[in-house]
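thread from #wetlab-drylab

HS: before we spend reagent money on co-crystallization trials with lanosterol, can we at least see a predicted complex? here's what I'd submit
DV: go for it
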Amino acid sequence: MRAPAGRSPIEKGLDVLVATQDPSGSWKGDYGGPLFLPPLYVGTLYALGRVPDASTRAGFLRYLRAHQNGDGGWGLDVEGSSQVFTSVLNYVALRLLGVPPEDAGLQRARAWFLPHGGALASASWGKFMLCVLGLYEYEGLYPVPPELWLLPRWLPFHPGRLWCHCRMVYLPMSHLYGRRARVADAPVLRALREEIYAEPYAAIDWRAARDRLAPTDVYTPRTAFLQRVNRLLGAYEGMHSGALRERALAEVLQQIRAEDEATHHICIGPVNKLYNTLVWHFERPGGAEVEAHVARLADYLWENRDGLKMNGYNSSELWDTAFAVQAIAATGQTQRMRPTLARAYRFIVDQQVLEDSPQPERHYRHPSKGGWPFSTREHGWPISDCTAEGLKASLLLAALEPLDLTLSAERLADAVSLLLSMQNGDGGWATYELRRGPRWLELLNPSDVFGDIMVDYSYVECTSACVQALMAYLHASKALPASRAEALRGAVRRGRDFILRAQGEDGGWEGSWGVCFSYGTWFGTWGLRAAGVEVEHPALRRAAAYLRAHQLADGGWGETIESCRQRTWVHAEGGQAVMTSWALLALHACGEGPSRAAQRGAAFLRARQQPDGRWPEEHIAGVFNKTCAIHYDAYLRVFPVWALALVDGVSVG
Ligand code: LAN
């Protein structure tokens, strides 16, 4: 696509948004990045006995080869340095796809992971999948007992209190573990057992293997507390009652069924999607549950230039669309963009979740009615900040009369009530639920490779989005009963105070779902401004100074995922368009759009825009659990337009 000459950078950016909108009205795209997902997908297909068709196979092969590091291994994600966990799993995936062990890429892989300890040194999640594939022994795992689900709910470590993503992964794991699920042996598996270990399989001491772990695979070291609990679980496993186990497995299966049905077999995330599929395969091979799961497996696939990948979610559509709408609105070109906005509005309206999941308390679910999910309504798990962004976008669009569609007052009120119900005692908002567990649960994080997965904490991003949405609703609603308006203002004040407390000494905010401090500081500053904090407030002065101090010589801002891992700003080699945009949005909120720093940032964005209106690919901008990078395809099309709309053309002060 070539842009007509003479169009402004913003117009060219808008043209790209128009051209890339999906017929459904959303923007959707590649949501890849994590390299532990494709091999879990391939392993699941293998376990189900479903040979991928030729194009799926070729697509996966291209992707896995494209992301093999120079040293022969694979990282946790496409930007990460090699780990045993993902190196062994991707090696196994390539073999299961039919690549022979003599293949040069596979030889290089073995030459990397065998000296690093082979499969015995993999992080715990790798060993688990290897068990299911018959490539590791269950005795070499610390137990994942399903009986935990039978404990009284009031216990602080009941699994129902875990962050929902952690809980929903360990749920099917406990079933597979309890049944010691394992695929039938086959020649390729026998060969693999010789290839992925540095020693003969028969000679392995499985008990000792529980504690083997390569330093490359450790982000969250196993605490003494976790080791004690692990030993306790090990002792329990040696003496557990068969009848109780059956009861626990039945309860776990019931919870799995509820998750499947509430999400139309999409499941909350990619890992429990695959493990739930496997549970049903072992429980009722070829049964209706397996068929229902298989029908939705491809929802997670995405083909791009680098090959076929498993996305980190069934999509990021609602989230991206809500941001695209806000960026477009900021340009003021809503007249010309009307058809695009009308389609987006229809999409957003259609994704609101209109009812609670079945028997929510029974299944540890927070109410859902009125919320927006990250992806689609069918997925069914609303999230605080997705609800907030969905609400913000809807209110903006409703104000652009007439797009012949509006959300009823009742549906808007449902969204607001849900947001109010999700505010934590500390004034902040977590992701999907109220915070349910104590901080010390993090000491039992068994994943090795992820940080902060045990509890759903309050986050600056979620809090800021909710504060902004509540204020937008307050401004838009003329006739609110006084008590309701007061409840909203109280929630906003508590949210504001949380954001103030979350600010770092240096003036920045640490982001958790984007890379990293530029992302967090965008949310921090916007939340404070929405809550009525003046630009002269010391918190905003410090934020602006913090951003100015991190501007690069090229006029841009840039961080790498190392910022998230090390929890301190780590500069990229040069400015990145997405992070520069976040910094500019934040400076704008601090009243510094016209400043020299911001104008240099805008010039950086303009200079980097290609003739076709796009910005070139750059460092990954999304992250989860401190360590894993994830690609947000729409960000490069949305945020530069938004930032330029707010700061460009404003005269230098
Ligand atoms: C997501 C995607 C969306 C994201 C935002 C809404 C952007 C954020 O503001 C809140 C957190 C949330 C919902 C989020 C949490 C972690 C997720 C679900 C992911 C990054 C997508 C994939 C990731 C999930 C945990 C991946 C599977 C790995 C495990 C450790 C279970």
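DV: Residues 165, 169, 269-271, 312-313, 319, 374, 383, 385-386, 431, 450, 453, 461-462, 513, 624-625, 630 surround lanosterol (CB under 6 Å).
HS: ok that's useful, forwarding to the group
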